[in-house]
Amino acid sequence: MVNFFKSHPISTERIYKYFFDRILTRDDGIDAEKLTQFMLTMLSQASRYRNLPGIRWTLKELSKDLQRVDQRLEQTLFGCNFKNPIGLAAGLDKNGIAAAIWDLFGFGFAELGTVTWHKQPGNPRPRLFRLAAEEAALNRMGFNNDGAIAMRETLRQQQLLQPGQRASLIGLNLGKSKITSLANAPDDYASSLETLAPLADYVAINISSPNTPGLRELQNPKKLIQLIRRLKQTPCCPPLLVKIAPDLDNDSIDRLGKLACEEKLAGLIAVNTSLNRLGLEQRILSQTGLPLSKETGGLSGKPLQNRGVEVIKRLYKAAGPRLPLIGVGGIDSPQVAWERISAGASLLQLYTGWIFQGPSLVPQILEGFSSQLDQHGFKNISQVVGSNAPWI
Predict the structure, then answer these.
(1) Which of 26, 89, 126, 250 has the highest Cβ tally under 10 A?
(2) What percent of the chain has pLDDT over 90?
(3) Strand 298-301 with 136-139, pairing
(4) What confidence tens digit (pLDDT) does each residue in 336-352 have?
(5) pLDDT at residue 9 greater than cutoff 90
(6) Cβ proximity of 230 and 189 under 8 Å
(7) Active-site pick, 44, 168, 191, 209
């Protein structure tokens, strides 16, 4: 078997299309959450036993197929050196079970979580739905995770290098436990942060998921300032970023951009999933028979492209280049990724687009960036940020 693969190098794109193309072109069929969990179980085993000869060889071949190196794509932001600007978004690896191998898929960083202080099962199933024709997803997961203490042990078992020494960076996305009141939210987040801070290159504060009742109230400036100041009291606090919703009005987005600078946040992540159905109100969810206007949960994927770039542009205008922005939402091609950087994002994150397009999306974006740098004459990707340079 090894000899066969040595003469036929791994093509992740071919393998992915063979196994998943027919599944991802239909709403029904294999349950989206079960399929995701199956994939994560395999990745978890690969991460845990990555030094066994057969697994080590396979992962090495995977990295040859998916990793791309171009020093022009490196950036140092909030004290962290990013090898490239493409990251895995929070929500996929909720418990950090594959933390040690995400860099082999070409990512410059991976954001793990969302994790909460208390272990929680999340919302009733079904809670994750494919919208195949729109290359979108609807989720109402509800921060299902094993809790911060369990994540700490999971990450330690994988024997990760210390922050600052890793091939790619690890961000940890923290949320509020459902059983915790809004009044006690700062202490709830702080408990998770104190537990996980030594393992994180940076931490994202998730106050924008639509699936935890009342959570988005923490985007209120007064409540957010209280939360930020409480977390900054944590010993050896890593760089703090805040993840915001796409459904805020433009004035609120402008205020958050200015607040982030005043409170000296490391950056903002824009955007989370949307409660707005973005023109898909009457789209019937085949699994339930109801239109999206009647369904709860957050929309992700291609429908968020326009709003995602709008929010980045507003934040960049409000805060300027002094505040690093991470763009997420509907990024599914090199051109869309370039346009998000050009609008003002320094870094990008993938999730739904990565599922629909497959792992080859990361090297395709990185190759596209390198080509665009050549054509525009930019010396580094940082020069593209906020430049409004078009895709050519």
Answers:
(1) 89
(2) 96
(3) antiparallel
(4) 999 999 999 999 999 99
(5) no
(6) yes
(7) 209
Instruction: Kindly state whether residue 392 falls inside one of the protein's structural domains.
Output: no
**Which DSSP string corresponds to 74-127?**
-EEETTEEESSSEEEPTTSSTT-TTTTTGGGGT-SEEEEEEE-SS-B--SPSP-
Q: Is the peptide bond before 126 cis (omega within 30 degrees of 0)?
A: yes
Look at residue 388 and tell me if it is in a domain.
no
Cα 22 from chain centroid (whole Å): 25
Provide the domain count of the chain: 1
**The tokens 């418990």 sit on which residue?**
95
Which of helix, strand or coil describes residue 283? coil
- Helix extents (H) in the chain: 2-7, 12-24, 32-48, 53-66, 148-157, 185-196, 221-231, 250-262, 305-319, 334-343, 352-357, 361-376
Give a yes or no: residue 33 inside a domain.
Answer: yes
Q: Is 192 a catalytic residue?
A: no
Task: Locate 100 and state its tokens.
Answer: 């040690």
Residue 391 lies in a domain: no
Percent of the chain having pLDDT more than 70?
A: 98
Phi, psi of 378 (to 5 degrees): -75, 145
Q: How many CB atoms are closer than 10 A to CB 75?
A: 19
Domain containing 220 — which CATH number?
Answer: 3.20.20.70
Q: Are the C-beta atoms of 46 and 57 separated by less than 8 Å?
A: no
Give the whole-angstrom CA distance, residue 110 versus residue 353.
15
For the whole model, what pTM was predicted?
A: 0.96
CA distance 355 to 332: 9
Q: Is 379 buried (19+), middle (13-18) or exposed (0-12) by CB count in 10 A? A: exposed
How many CB atoms within 10 Å of residue 229?
11
Comparing CA positions, the residue from 30, 92, 23, 19 lying closest to residue 287 is 30
Containing domain of residue 315, as a range? 2-383
* Sequence-ordered list of residues with C-beta below 8 angstroms from that of 167, at least 6 positions apart, any chain: 83, 103
**For residue 383, how many other CB atoms are within 10 A of its CB?**
14
Residue 225, helix vs strand vs coil:
helix
